[in-house]
Fold this protein.
Amino acid sequence: MAGRQPIGSIREDRDLGTHRIAFLASETGVAQETRERLALRYGDHPLEDADVVVALGGDGFMLQTLHATEGLDLPVYGMNRGTVGFLMNAFSEDDLPERVAAAEEAIINPLAMLAETASGEVQRGLGINEVSLLRAGPQAAKLRVIVDGRVRLEELVCDGALVATPAGSTAYNYSAYGPILPIGADVLALTAIAPFRPRRWRGALLPTGATVRFEVLEPEKRPVMADADSRLVRDVVAVEIRSEPRVRHRILFDPGHGLEERLIREQFA
């Protein structure tokens, strides 16, 4: 699911440190002020003319940037101007072109969501971290879990459930007591959120190529919504989730601080 290479190998016709940068920043004051200073110092190019995107913000803004640039095949180098910054590099205004040139690249594939609503509408979305189903009323959700056309759980009573990628396994999945997955693992995590029945069910690890289908039982009494990176679909009756290898996101990290190291480090935090 992921591979790494120096960004310098992507643009072999360009000298070290001369990458054309497009700066994007979250709406916070500190991110916007940082963008102005960096653009003045290093130059700022339109996305269509850039070699690399530098995203300034937190993890939420990184996900937003990856979605916004997914059709451009541009690597994204994040610098933390937010809070947690799991997907971001440490912030520094110095030597930015050299850091970008030396960065390691991780390629990740998102999850494709196909959600059918009670009205018969079908909506699609992509989730870089996870696709989740959440109860939308006072009562627990009831879900039937189907993997590759085979019913694996006839009834899962829970607050919700999610499918997470390795890159997203330290996010909502980990908060729901799901496993942290190595970045190179060809598996997905299927994790229940506050499961009530089966009481001891702790989720499952599935091959990357698996298709997971959730069917909502008693949708009028127990409404459920689906979410793929903040693309929210209400009143779903069925949701299908699978990895989308045709879409790839390219994230740059400082050497020795890539996703693999971060995922290992999280397990000892």
